[in-house]
Amino acid sequence: MPGRIVPANDAWIAEAAQMIRAGALVAFPTETVYGLGSDAANGEAVARIFEAKGRPSFNPLIVHVAGLEQAVIIGSFSATARRLTEAFWPGPLTLVVPRLETTDVSDLVSAGLPTVAIRAPDHPIARELLKQANRPIAAPSANRSGHVSATRAEHVAADLGDNATLILNGGPTAHGLESTVLSLVGDTPVLLRPGAVSIETIEQVIGEKIARANEKGEHLTSPGQLRSHYAPHSKLRLNATTWKSDEAVLGFGKVAKHPCRASINLSPSGDLIEAAANLFAALRALDESGADTIAVTPIPTAGLGEAINDRLERAAAPRD
Ligand code: AMP
Ligand code: MG
After folding, report:
1. CB 62 near ligand 1, within 6 Å
2. pTM exceeding 0.85
3. What distance in Å separates the CA atoms of residue 103 and residue 89, rounded to the nearest whole number?
4. Is 32 near ligand 1, meaning CB less than 6 Å away?
5. Closest-CA residue to 136 (of 194, 64, 81, 192)
6. What is the pLDDT of residues 6-25, one digit of tens each?
């Protein structure tokens, strides 16, 4: 079905919610910019977001929720985190918190990190969509990677074409500025991205100074800034076509049947979307097999393959 702009009336919001539940991508307005959303628990749907955006790497996505009740079963909310949600939710403040082991949110949403970014948007259409879909929606800004964020439905259509199955038209967005991203993972809150909620108003609510990312090396926790950020314990050997019997094997497509310690095929049929959805869980499982080395068979670099290979190259990078 071609991506099409539809009026955000009751009937189309209901249809969009149904489509989210069925694994499709739906673009919708928020008070900041338009988001390109999918069911956050559906790994393949999340993979299609990365494909649609043409992102060369897996940056973690913001999970949109209806409110705190939905958020606390995804991440761990400290007293400070709760105070911030009381003051600013629904609204343009995204909180990065430790991810709960029990969440069914796809680990592709967190790009394999032990943290998750969550916010409750304050826009009647986004809120109604979240309510009717009745599940968290992973949604980055609805634009091609590297392009400016879309503030009108027409911009989404021009930028993403048919990649969004449906675009709910809510007119121009109010802020046009992205949400503020605040990490509550460490001892002190760290501003990861300035945005629609000012750092001063946040400091007033929590009565504490907020550190800014980049001020100190240890605050460089934004994904992609550390080369071996995602490294598993095992060493990775890329483009392997053969392996020793004590090595683990991460395969893609048709894989030779040499003996090995453990093996997982990301997608026996050679489907990059399926492979992306399985990537982080597979890496973790092979890491836990105790093998010294994980041999990774060649993975094509087209489409989502670029982000998959980027992730594997980071994991293979020498550690400090
Ligand atoms: P966008 O995809 O345009 O909505 O931007 C999302 C922002 O949230 C990016 O700056 C991401 O790096 C940031 N973000 C999302 N999840 C996390 C996380 N777990 N840790 C740190 N930053 C995150
Ligand atoms: Mg963006």
Report:
1. yes
2. yes
3. 21
4. no
5. 64
6. 999 999 999 999 999 999 99
For residue 320, what pLDDT band results from cuts at 50, 70 and 90? Answer: low
The domains of the chain, with CATH numbers, are 4-219 (3.90.870.10), 235-316 (3.40.50.11030)
Q: 36 CB less than 6 Å from ligand 1?
A: no
Q: Is 229 or 31 the better-scoring residue by pLDDT? A: 31
- The reply to whether ligand 1 has any atom less than 6 angstroms from the CB of 25 is no
Residue nearest to ligand 1 atom 2, measured at CA: 140
**Ligand 1 in reach of 117 Cβ (< 6 A):** yes
Name 28's bridge partners. 35
Q: Identify which of 28, 34, 62 to mutate to test ligand 1's pocket (most ligand atoms within 8 A of the CB).
A: 62
Distance, CA of 279 to CA of 273 (rounded, Å): 10
b/e map of 118-134 (b: 16 or more CB within 10 Å)?
A: bbbbbbebbbbbbebbe
Q: Which residues sit with Cβ closer than 5 angstroms to ligand 2, an ion?
A: 141
Return the closest-CA partner of residue 8 out of 23, 30, 38: 30
The closest of 99, 107, 104 to 184, measured between CA atoms, is 99
Neighbours of 87 (CB within 10 A): 15
Q: What percent of the chain has pLDDT above 90?
A: 85
